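Inputs:
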Amino acid sequence: MTATLPPQLAELVDDFAGVGPKDRLQLLLELSMELPALPERYADAADTMEQVHECQSPLFLAVEVDPDAERRVHLFFSAPPEAPTTRGFASIMHTGLDGETAADVLAVPDDFYTALGLGEAVSPLRLRGMAAMLARIKNQVRAATAT
Amino acid sequence: MGLPNDTDSKLAAYAHPKRLVTTEWLAQHLGDNGLVVVESDEDVLLYDTGHIPGAVKVDWHTELNDPVTRDYVDGERFAQICGERGITRDTTVVFYGDRNNWWATYALWVFSLFGHADVRILDGGRAKWVAENREMTTEQPKPTAVDYPVVERDDTKIRAFKEQVLAHLGLDTSKKALVDVRSPGEYSGELLHMPDYPQEGAVRGGHIPGAASVPWARAAAEDATFKPRAELEAIYQQEQGLSSADDVIAYCRIGERSSHTWFVLTHLLGFSKVRNYDGSWTEWGNSVRVPIVQGSERGSA
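Outputs:
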């Protein structure tokens, strides 16, 4: 199942799958606290970053792809502290995908998040925010690598 | 039984002042016997980042909804949810939460389906408590489990189903009102198809014929408290023409935002018959051959 996932993401999926629903929530909470702050160059640019409207709380997302042959992807997120679930989802994306190649990011199955087993702890409805996040990341990666 | 009411003068002007408490009242009564404070948020993790000391969490999605049928939990499960949080049938339950108490009023509405008598909202919710630098903690309370009776849910008084909304369309217009509490874009039908994403959506956009458009958050002030009674009357009664004797049905997309409006109309303005249609647009907008109006006019069936 996790064979096509980048190693860090596969490890996260295993971490989540290995514990019960309550501990999954705790894990998500810890991840939410580890979401890195925006770098200086994006500090004033929150309005120029893409907003993922489907998330219940505002989340801003920027994607950079290295211009060299490897085309590694860098992800930048911003979400308010009063939206820890959204921050947790963003942190999963950041931990799991930041620094991976564009091809590997695009190869992540759109429904990979079902393997996290968060449906019971967080509810399927809320999980859709994560699906939307991955879709936006892929769109931006495609756009950046199209030329 | 139960705790004394908050006698604050702003609250006193509302139809049912006993349904609200101020942050000051709560700060003075925290820890009192017979009181349980419940946090209910949109964000399932927010409580865990810090909450009012002693408060327990009830999650609207994973706890108040039945996991299989699109319905609320049954009496047995509700009794379990209450009992393990130290809530007895006589407990004064004060709800608070994020986003102008949106989810707190939803939880209160579900508790009301089970006829829990003493339910109140913390005016201003989590935002006001935090803004006033009042105490917050990450310490999880460990309530002693108590017995809560298994009570059958009463869906007849404050909840409406699709068939009842259809019947409601046929009532004399002078005696009824429908309130659509979604955003103007959802009301007109423009907002429906979101790029890349199925949403919890509907296949048709628009609103139920005759529905007044009053986005729910208009009832909230900047500091997340409810607007004073006179301001609420100006919106719902003077501007929208609703009357406290009307047979009112409120709806949104899945019935959560409309529970906020249900609270405002019922407890703050004293409307005598208000029902929340929790099927809301995700049911109506997907139903075959029900009438729909698009655009910004109310229209008629």
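Remarks. Residues 176 and 247 of chain B are 5 Å apart (CA to CA). Chain B touches chain A at residues 42-46, 48-49, 59, 61-62, 67, 98, 194, 196-200 (CB under 8 Å).
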